[in-house]
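Appendix B. Raw example, untouched.
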Amino acid sequence: MKKRELTFLITALILGAVLGGLVGDIVGTFLPTGAAKTVFSKSIQIGMEPTQVDFYAISFTFGLKFKINFMSVLIVLLVIVYFRWWYL
């Protein structure tokens, strides 16, 4: 695998996850109450809460959190399938 292909894959996966999460939230807000709304609007958050270290002149904030929903997983899987079909 070339470096360019790896960069494309990582970029596509990140963009797919972000856009999938956004689409899932948007679709979830417009659906009526029911099973479909639950599938699109429910998400799992993985990561750690922001922690702040405050020195006299410098302040650092550390934290990383992933919010995963149905559409973000679906789009990431589609990106992986597309990459395998196109490049392998």
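End of appendix B.
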